[in-house]
């Protein structure tokens, strides 16, 4: 039985990962920035009450992430896997249309949050002698560019570089590192990007219906791989180039509508 800590796990794919780990018999510590949402998530997982715990905290604050690690370890013992999942999206607007506050908030969560979580988990795991740290990829991780997603892509591109660089610097530590690429998952974060009624949103909905997946399908794959990996550095990818090509070729046979009211 392993102990997994997941930041930003009160909803979306973070919650889905937590539930999947619990279904497989492991212990999970949830994290969210709002106590109310954390309580709601714990209530939804009530049947696993003996193996699930929650700690509220802001990923943009290093001390908060250190408290998360130590509180989780005090409750369930050694932290085997730490997943830096917390992230927010951006409205599909050009950079000059975003106000400074929105830019700072996105970078604070998506980049600084990953840095803080990685450092806090690494320091704690060094004392344990082992552990695995996974950071979430997203659009931009591979350098792709989509208009209206510039800041989100910038944050994920930086996370990709940071993860590889940190792992290289810590290569003699005995701690394992990895990146998790979930592809396009139908969560609140994705739905927020197409919430405004417009022709642009209509096009994106068609694109998502073709290439996106539900949380259950993606988390089953990701959790299995995260538990199984033994490599010093592992990249776990759900929506591979091969899958994208097949879905583009046979899209007419993949009749789904995630946005039907």
Automatic annotation (TrEMBL):
Superkingdom as given in the UniProt entry: Bacteria
Annotated GO biological process: chlorophyll catabolic process; PSII associated light-harvesting complex II catabolic process
Molecular-function GO terms, alphabetical: chlorophyll(ide) b reductase activity
InterPro entries listed in its UniProt record: Chl_b_Red, NAD(P)-bd_dom_sf, SDR_fam
Family statement drawn from the similarity comment of this UniProt entry: Belongs to the short-chain dehydrogenases/reductases (SDR) family.
Name of the featured protein: Short-chain dehydrogenase/reductase SDR
């Amino acid at each position: 039985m392993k102990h997994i800590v997941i930041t930003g796990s009160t909803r979306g794919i973070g919650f889905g990962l937590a539930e999947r780990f619990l279904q497989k018999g492991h212990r999970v510590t949830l994290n969210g920035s709002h106590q109310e949402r954390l309580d709601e998530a714990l209530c939804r997982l009530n049947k696993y009450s003996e193996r699930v715990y929650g700690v509220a905290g802001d990923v943009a604050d290093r001390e908060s992430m250190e408290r998360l690690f130590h509180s989780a370890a005090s409750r369930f013992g050694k932290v085997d896997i730490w997943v830096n999942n917390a992230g927010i999206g951006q409205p599909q607007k050009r950079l000059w249309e975003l106000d400074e506050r929105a830019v700072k908030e996105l970078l604070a969560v998506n980049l600084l949050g990953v840095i803080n979580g990685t450092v806090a988990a690494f320091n704690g795991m060094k004392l344990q002698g082992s552990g695995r740290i996974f950071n979430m990829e997203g659009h931009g991780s591979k350098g792709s560019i989509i208009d209206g997603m510039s800041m989100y892509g910038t944050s994920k591109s930086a996370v990709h570089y940071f993860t590889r660089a940190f792992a290289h610097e810590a290569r003699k530590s005995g701690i394992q590192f990895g990146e998790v690429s979930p592809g396009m998952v139908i969560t609140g974060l994705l739905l927020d990007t197409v919430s405004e009624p417009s022709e642009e949103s209509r096009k994106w909905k068609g694109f998502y219906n073709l290439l996106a997946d539900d949380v259950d399908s993606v988390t089953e794959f990701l959790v299995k791989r995260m538990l199984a990996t033994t490599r010093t550095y592992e990249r776990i990818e759900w929506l591979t180039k091969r899958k994208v090509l097949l879905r583009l070729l046979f899209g007419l046979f993949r009749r789904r509508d995630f946005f039907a009211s």
